[in-house]
Amino acid sequence: MAVGYILLAMAMPGSLYIGSILVGMCYGVRLAITVPTASELFGLKYYGLIYNILILNLPLGSFLFSGLLAGILYDMEATTTEGGGNTCVGGHCYRLVFVVMTGACIVGFFLDILLSIRTKNIYTKISVSKKSLATSNRQ
Q: Which segments cross the bilayer (predicted)?
């Protein structure tokens, strides 16, 4: 996803399409793996609550990044017009927003690595229990 945001920040011809496709695909994959990850790591007893907490980042991130951050940074880059409004034309208008979002994605990537290291034992136990069940069912 960070690569997609870097492409969007570069504002080269065609980078809008490629960057948008990459970011969209990453969001799709992220939403698809949230369901099994939540059920495997936390179980099904409080699944609804846990899943909703995990999905809370979508509206919260939209508000913080799109509503606040993008608006503030756009206003900083924009020039005041005669009518009293702000206008900005060109790739520089949202470049800093995409750079900040790239940084957030990189931080998230390293947190994902930390999560995978911490949950390695859980997935090893799941794999061993599945193998032992398969072996006992054959006998």
A: 6-29, 49-74, 94-115
Rounded Cα distance between 56 and 128, Å, is 33
Give me the number of domains the chain comprises.
1
Convert the pLDDT of each residue in 21-67 to its tens digit: 999 999 899 889 888 888 888 888 988 899 898 889 889 988 998 88
Q: How much is the pLDDT for 139?
A: 64
SS3 call for 89 = coil
Burial (CB count <10 Å: 0-12, 13-18, 19+), residue 18: middle
Tokens of 49: 């609550």
Positive or negative: CA dihedral 38, 55, 45, 110: positive
Domain of 22 in residue numbering reads as 2-138
